[in-house]
Amino acid sequence: MKKTLLSTLVLLCAAGQAQAENLLEIYQQATQNDPQVREAKARRDAAFEKINESRASLLPQVDLSAGLNYAQTGQNDLRTGSTSTAGVNLSQALYRKSSWVSLDITEKQAAQREVGYKQEQQALIVRATQAYFNVLNAEDALSFVQANKEAVSRQLEQTKQRFEVGLSAMTDVHEAQAQYDQALADEILARNALDNSKEALRELTGMHYDRLAPLNTETFSPQAPAMRADGWLEIALEQNLALHGQRIAKDIASEQIDLARAGHLPTLDLNAGLNSTHSDFKNDSPNDGTLNEGSIGVSFKLPLYSGGATRSQVSQAQYNYVAESELLEKSFRAVQSNVYSSYNDVTAALGSIRAFEQLVISAESALSATEAGYEVGTRTIVDVLNATRQLYNARQQLSSARYDYIVSQLQLKQAAGNLTEQDLIDINNGLQR
User: Fold this and answer.
1) Cα-flanking dihedrals φ and ψ of residue 162, to 5°?
2) Which of 37, 132, 135, 408 has its CA 20 to 30 A from that of 427?
3) How far apart are CA 374 and CA 66, in angstroms?
4) Measured between alpha carbons, how far is 293 from 272 in angstroms, rounded to an integer?
5) Which spans of this chain does the record mark as coiled coil (predicted)?
């Protein structure tokens, strides 16, 4: 019975450990629950639906009308009767330049919303990854702070013991106590940072996570960017979504000029109708009976003068086109800056990883040497405490540099416009299972 209970507890513990969420799972949950992505999707869908509304003005318009009137006429000899009417009317635009231009504008606006939705999807990959590794970074920071606290606690106890036997001065005890108090304060701050990072992750998905799959540092192997910065910029000029969206905005502004100029052009419409009128009075009337009428015709309208409104609308559209052209140039410069800065971030993170790896090795050696010197009296307890703190700071810096490298890589691909879910999957494969 005891063996069965023990086996059950082991299985339950293993199941609890297996419940750690990984990056891909959190991203998939975010795609369903993140308000920014859902808003962009809804606005995209609304924009595509508006195409149907815009196209409707080019299609036949059919109306059905009906009416019933009851009347009394005469003074002495009342004549009472009713008249009923029914009709069907059809109109079809034969030539309306503005309707065609409006349709083109609506289609481009829908395409712009599609680009915006894709932008949000790419941004979500970066946001989810950033939030995920912010939690891991905060967890690492807390673990390093706690490890430092434990090490300082042991050194504090040893210092007290050495003081009691006369091997250390009281100042050493005070120094160790001060370092321990600092470690306690650092732990409080680290816990708060971890809680805040978890809240930021919850904001993406609406869910709370107790455990996240950590980075597999044994298989983690950072690589330099696949090409030089100029190569990434060439890709960005073709694929960057912000740049693509602004190009569409400039095209829309050009179409708006055509739409305004269409106010000077004539319109031609086809109109047809079929109407029936039935009259029925109590006394005989020459108006009794049914009258059927049909009509068909073409209406032509040419604007001659509208007080200068159309001319003003054209000028406004032209100014707006200039503004959108300047925004396109601004977008190009921003993309260029983002590509180069993201590229620099990747290379800097790569270099810092290598530097911090060496720093950890050096800090470990320094701590060992300082502890040995303290034992023989050539180093003080302050030296030992500082060396301990420097070691755990170096480990934390190395951990942060790894996460910065991962996020910087995604930001570089986002700036280039070729960031996909596969990039996130590749990162997810580098997590512990």
Assistant:
1) -65, -35
2) 37
3) 105
4) 11
5) none
Helices (H) and strands (E) in the chain, counts: 10, 4
Mean pLDDT of the 416-426 span: 95
Helix axis angle, 421-428 to 381-416, nearest 10°: 150
pLDDT score for 287: 58
Q: What is the DSSP string of 201-269?
A: HHHHHS---S-BPPB-TTT------SS-HHHHHHHHHHH-HHHHHHHHHHHHHHHHHHHHHGGGS-EEE
Take residue 202 and report the two structure tokens written for it: 């919850």
Helix or strand or coil: residue 329?
helix
Task: Supply the DSSP string of 74-111, one letter for each residue.
Answer: -SSS-EEEEEEEEEEEEEEEEE-HHHHHHHHHHHHHHH
**Strand partners for 69:** 83
pLDDT, one tens digit per residue, over 56-105 is 999 999 999 988 887 776 554 556 677 888 999 999 999 999 999 999 99
pTM, two decimals, is 0.84
